[in-house]
Amino acid sequence: MRQRWGGCFSGGDVRVGGRPLEEPEPEVFSFAEPLPAWPPGGGFARGRMCIGGGELELAAATSFQKICTLSSTWRGGSSSTTFYRPVGVPEGFCLLGHYCQPNCRPLHGHLLVARAGARPPGAPAQPPPLCAPRDYSLVWEFRAGGVGSGTRGDAGSCYGLCDAYFWVPVPPEGYRALGCLVTTEPQKPPLDEVACVRADLTDECEPHGSLLHLQLARRRPPSSSESCAPAFAVRGVRPVHRGMWGKGVGAGTFCCAADGTAPREQGMACLSNVELDLSAMPTLEQAHAVIRHYGPTLFFHPKEVYLPSSVSWFFKNGAALYKRGGDGAGEEVDGEGSNLPGGGCNDGEYWIDVPGGERGRAVCRGNIDSAELYAHVKPAMGGACTDVAMWVFCPFNGPARLKLGPISLPLGKTGRHVGDWEHFTLRVSNLTGELMGLYYSQHSGGHWVDASALEYTDGNRPVVYSSRNGHASYAYPGVYLQGSAALGIGIRNDAARSRLFVDSSAKYRIVAAEHLGEGAVAEPQWLQFMREWGPTVVYKSRKRMEWMIGRLPLRIRGRAENMLNKMPNELSREEGPTGPKEKNNWEGDERW
């Protein structure tokens, strides 16, 4: 088993003071096993893809040369981020920007480069798709030894191993820049160092994440108009228009600003797959090969009582369909759900429930031997990537537990409901066939973990930990809180390895792949059921928590009350869960 790199720098306000400890340069990430020879056909994993009707050809740069490292101290610890330029770029391709990542994980970059392709036949004459910038604008500079200055005259202290100058390309009229550059000399980069892209081949972008955030020390008292010290932030860039049918393509570059300026205000953008050409997407056979190669192992907690099952097992063992205004008797459902009402919306007319008594309790405990993952294969990042959302079904969601510092208390029936759909998502590059990251869904949110920071089991298959009772997905074992980690107060999510697991590389079923066209994948009828997979449940746990918090010491009671106000509404009432197609990430992007 291979472990992740721990303690990854996640940003935040960092006051730079004192010379930080030097961190070793990260090793270059490599998968435990070589990638397989993918089944032939189509444009998947061929190293190239075209957008704009072939006007722009894209490739992926995955080898890098270090430019410089910036280090900072924060709350007694130290972190560092390294900036890179790609090397080994295919002949004729242009850089769109530089790459950076925190040093807490192995080097694993995926930066798009571009070259002009063939103009579509019959297309009107247009300016070239790529053009050199007309100038560069200095965003911020750091000087080794402790001096950092911004273009507006703010000053502070920062330590790096060498000088660093951050530039944003100034595009010609009708073009957009896609990324920033870093140099170790004050001279502007050569104009042919990077290319700008014609505006009609771009899409709007937005910053996300935090790659480096430095709250710089002042050398003078702030004026009345300056409420805080100047900051310099480096962030990732992603398309605004994402999801299954989104045309935005992220290039893997970064943006930076000293005053919170948005990248689009600096003339930056992302690429756009204008005609949404999905020829680089995998064929059905290739999608199966991707899942067999990268399919994660899903571990359940050793004390888990409410295990997964297949949907077929759930129906065959007593789950029934109920109708509002009916006689109270449920209608039996066959293994494929062929008699479930399909389409429409969640109008409250129908829901699914389990039988009462011991038979119902047996259904709620699930059947892990029958469990399988239900895979939705879909385009991501404008067809430059493939997302494989893998859905797991548990017949029952168990009760929640509250953590109050060192004490854990059961919350009675809170959290208990019939039917629980959870998922995690693989993201694979359509250019290289490499796994780029894994999304872990957690209740109403979640986060991506880069492939270099994942824990793996056999070969190139990552690990997913399912939390006890609630079945949220986590990358590593531990106790996670919905609430305040600082106070140690919140709903517990315990994740640990056990002998209870499902290997999704072997036990899966592709239930949807819309990009392949109608009929390519036979979608089961239960997938079209848009109503609730369990009845609505009303709880009294919020009043109980208010009672408990009212008896806490005064010094933490106020903060605990604020934390309670931020807790999910499910503490009072929970609607029956809907199926995968009713989730906004079925067609939309993951919440990150």
Give a short overview.
With 592 residues, this protein is mostly beta strands. It has 5 helices and 41 strands. The model is unreliable at 1-21 and 147-158 (pLDDT under 50).
Describe the structure.
The protein has 592 residues and is mainly β. The strands form eleven sheets. A six-stranded mixed beta sheet has the order 33-32-31-28-27-39, with helices on one face. The chain has a five-stranded antiparallel beta sheet with strand order 11-10-9-13-15, with no helix packed on it. A hairpin with a 2-residue loop joins strand 32 (435-442) and strand 33 (445-450). The chain is globular. Mean pLDDT is 86; it is low at 1-21 and 147-158.
What tags apply to this protein structure?
Vacuolar protein sorting-associated protein 62, Vps62, 592 residues, 5 helices, mainly beta
**Percent helix range:** under 10%
Parts with pLDDT < 50 across at least 5 consecutive residues: 1-21, 147-158
Strand content: 35-45%
Distance between the termini: 28 Å
Q: How many strand elements?
A: 41
How do the strands of the widest beta sheet line up side by side? 33-32-31-28-27-39
> What class do helices, strands and sheet pairing give?
mainly beta
pLDDT averaged residue by residue = 86
Task: Output the number of helix runs.
Answer: 5
Q: Which radius of gyration do the C-alpha atoms yield?
A: 26 Å
- The coarse silhouette is globular
Instruction: Report the major sheet.
Output: 6 strands, mixed
